[in-house]
Amino acid sequence: MYLSRAELDPTRRSTMIALTSPQKFHGAVENSFSGERRRRLWRLDSLNGKLYLLLLSEELPDLTGLCTQFGTGAAPETRRYEPLLERVTSGSCWQFRLTANPTRARKDPADPLARGALKPCYLEAEQEQWLLEQAGKHGFALTEGAFQVTRKQTCHFRKNGKRPVTLLAVTYEGILQVTDPEAFREMLCQGIGRGKAYGLGLMTILHGGSSHG
Question: Is residue 132 within 8 Å of 142, Cβ to Cβ?
Fold first, then answer.
């Protein structure tokens, strides 16, 4: 697998439009690969005043088109992902960053037997509880106070220019401990939560330092 990073120019009109319509980034990501279309994990990240697109993929991407459309002119960077995965061991602790779409099934009081519809978790306490619940499913443990919500944004756009979509994006940062290395590595590669086509679900980790990806 490969983890890539491309610097974006937020002053360009094309980038400004894509920041409010994430399906445009999704299309550019998919066009970075030949052959069969499949869902890849990606995320927008700010670091030292610069904006980046992070991309995790099984194949080596060609980010020329994406950088031409949204970039600053700086060359993208790509690294193999396996060396990091190999360092994941039971009990190891990592700094993490995750932008995800926390949701919760809510039943209709008028029809208590029906399956609950998924609704966004807008309250911060619900957002934190969602991540605590996900941790148990994906091979890591969190303690209250060791992570926090650092950013939340609601994005409204039309899918394919037609169907309206409202998407809640919540960024979490903190410290986690691995409890099940196999499940944790699978989550790193497959993502967590919903909205993966729109830049959500990619968790990045590091032992030390100040940058993710």
Answer: yes
Residue 209 pLDDT level (bands cut at 50, 70, 90): very low
Q: The tokens of 23 are what?
A: 């399906």
The Cα–Cα gap between 1 and 82 comes to 6
Q: What is the pTM of this model?
A: 0.87
CA 148 → CA 125, 132, 156, distances in Å? 10, 11, 24
Closest CA to 142 of 74, 205, 213, 52: 205
The 10s digit of each residue's pLDDT in 172-188 is 999 999 999 999 999 99
- Residues 96 and 25: their CA atoms lie apart, in Å, by 23
Query: With 90 as the cut, is the pLDDT of residue 211 above it?
Result: no
